[in-house]
Amino acid sequence: MKLTVFGATGGVGREIVRQALAEGHDVTAAVRDPARFAVTGVAGERLEVHRADLADPEALRAAVAGKDAVLSGLGARTRADAGVAAKLTRSVLAAMDAEGVRRLVVVSAAPLGPVPDGQSIIEKAVLPIINTLYKDIYADLRVMEGELAASATEWTSVRPPKLTNKPVTGRYRTVVGGTPPRGRTLARADVAHAMLATLADPATVKQAVGVAY
User: Fold this and answer.
1) What whole-number distance in Å separates Cα of residue 209 and Cα of residue 110?
2) Which candidate, 92, 56, 71, 61, places its Cα nearest to that of 23?
3) Section 150-157 average pLDDT
4) Of 201, 9, 6, whose CA–CA distance to 90 is shortest?
5) Which H or E element spans position 123?
């Protein structure tokens, strides 16, 4: 497939690029600053680094033109960055619409999903604290998901819990439209793996997918 990856300088985005190349896809990494972008592994002529202002839909059209799918690791890295996910995803959606590209997979967060059955007393006590601490980030992601739902794209929102930097395993649980119970962590590498896996799964189109170990 021909893929474009946004947020390719982040932990999830870099893993999407690396794994997609390893799977034989052609990848365009759209970044603000190519000097910050580095990915190890198989690349060769199948990797293109496209420099663009991610807030400018017109500047993104060349990055998505003719692609089979777009994957986004865009999101706030700190509470001070809250708002960036919705703002930049809005630009991506506009560029995709202009170029007639339909498939989009983004990373979101588990707290946006329904509360699963079987939560422990500790989990029930901790969740409100987490939601309060990161309320601005989650509010940003809710706006982003609202933009997806209102768009013409065939979107999927992947919602992981707390992220780690462990290696990819390919072994995790997914719940389309729900949240895996007792799912506490997931490696960024496995988030990328799950996002790529949704490209071949029509059941995930226009759905949020909970994913966790």
Assistant:
1) 9
2) 71
3) 97
4) 6
5) helix 121-133
Boundaries of every domain in the chain: 2-212
CATH architecture, range 2-212: 3-Layer(aba) Sandwich (3.40)
Contact 25, 3 (CB under 8 A): yes
Q: How far apart are CA 158 and CA 160, in angstroms?
A: 6
DSSP string of 7-31?
A: STTSHHHHHHHHHHHHTT-EEEEEE
| CA 185-188-193 angle, 5° bins | 105
Q: Compute and round to an integer the Cα radius of gyration of the chain.
A: 16
Comparing CA positions, the residue from 74, 85, 60, 99 lying closest to residue 16 is 74
Residues 95-147 have pLDDT tens digits of: 999 999 999 999 999 999 998 776 766 676 667 667 777 889 999 999 999 99
More confident residue, 69 or 120: 69
User: Whole-prediction pTM value?
Assistant: 0.92
* Residues 87, 74: Cα–Cα separation, whole Å: 10
Q: What angle do CA 62, 64, 212 make, to 5 degrees?
A: 150
